[in-house]
Amino acid sequence: MTPHVIEPDPQAGAAIKAADRAHVFHSWSAQGLIDPLAVAGAEGSYFWDYDGNRYLDFTSGLVYTNIGYQHPKVVAAIQEQAGKLATFAPAFAVDVRSEAARLIAERTPGDLDKIFFTNGGAEAVENAVRMARLHTGRTKVLSAYRSYHGATSTAINLTGDPRRWPSDTASAGVVHFWAPFLYRSPFYSATEAEECQRALQHLEDTIAFEGPATIAAIILETVPGTAGIMTPPPGYLAGVREICDKYGIVFVLDEVMAGFGRTGKWFAAEHFDVVPDLMTFAKGVNSGYVPLGGVAINEKIAATFDKRPYPGGLTYSGHPLACAAAVATINVMADEKVVENAAHIGETVLGPGLRELAERHPSVGEVRGMGVFWALELVKNRETREPLVPYNAAGEAAAPMAALGAAAKKNGLWPFINMNRTHAVPACNVSEAEAKEGLAALDAALSVADGYTA
Fold this sequence. Notes:
Blueprint: H1 10-23, E1 39-43, E2 46-49, E3 54-57, H2 60-63, H3 72-84, H4 95-107, E4 114-118, H5 121-136, E5 140-144, H6 153-158, E6 174-177, H7 192-210, E7 215-221, H8 236-247, E8 250-254, H9 269-272, E9 278-281, E10 293-297, H10 299-304, H11 320-335, H12 338-360, E11 364-370, E12 373-381, E13 386-387, H13 399-410, E14 413-414, E15 416-418, E16 421-424, H14 432-450
Parallel strand pairs: 3-14, 5-6, 5-7, 7-8, 8-9
Antiparallel strand pairs: 1-2, 2-3, 4-10, 9-10, 11-12, 12-13, 12-16, 15-16
Helix pairs in contact: 3-11, 4-11, 7-8, 12-14, 13-14
């Protein structure tokens, strides 16, 4: 792909920002305190503003542009579909919808062969939980504290991070538990094996005290994303699978962020040799070019609704433009070996490079991840593991992370920052040169973070 020639146009950028501030209500923001960047364009792993500044995107949008921006084959597929059949109601069989479902089902593990399409990840979670509750006749759902499942009613209650708090009704039938995280173990574990065993025992104890016959589902992000990319220890997900089977609980894996190549496999579940009953997806399914998500459903749960209507649906379920983008994206990923590239970049560039940065920067407490899905845990003191900023810090308390972000942007890197972490989550087709460019910019930014260590 030929690099785009950036032609600065500050006047146009100012007009766009003025219109944004006058009329756009932004998510997760205090509207009067934000200053959104006016984006002029994007291509591959980069985007640029109207002042001529070009940024290497180490966020993949919101961890969804798995094949980068403006891939010509996907853009062409959307254009072709718009000319052929731009939209059609979900009750009909449409060729591109059927083909998208087939390609997804071919790649999901086990017998997750039926696909229910949604507009995004949160709606996928909503419907997965609804399916589990109807299938089991139970109401409670268990989810982890360090998690994010979406911003709709059920999904936000399932979420474990502070974004849940303002919307937590305490009546949504959700019970939270601690999933394994050795670096900040709630179980005082010294090894991954201990963390795994103690986390599984904690989960089973929670089930016992909540009442196994009341629990419809356990939902976990296969590899938690926004919450910190904590790769589960060997045996944990298999242990959760066994617990679910023991008590007749539906096991739901949320692959909205970890799926479609992000971890170096089509789905992160493949790393752990586990098959859930339901799997949610979105984001990377079509690189976010048109909103699309869904639930992959196993044979047993799908059969529940063979004679009994499923009481759920969406006007735009399986929208032809979104499905065309999914078909093109999946084919591009297969043809261009994008999943293999994600694994290669993780093993040979990002993993070694981030660990090397950790050796030189006292602000880095831990490096963790796989594929193009990595997190740096930043600390004030490596010995005490005190976070560089407090949990859910804001304003002046978050200044060290704000300084890190500003330094990264100054060096042409757009960083993913959440609490005391920065994540390295570039496109799955990022090149070795681009990944190394990002590491160099991150190196300079971490020097700023080091100034806040004790």
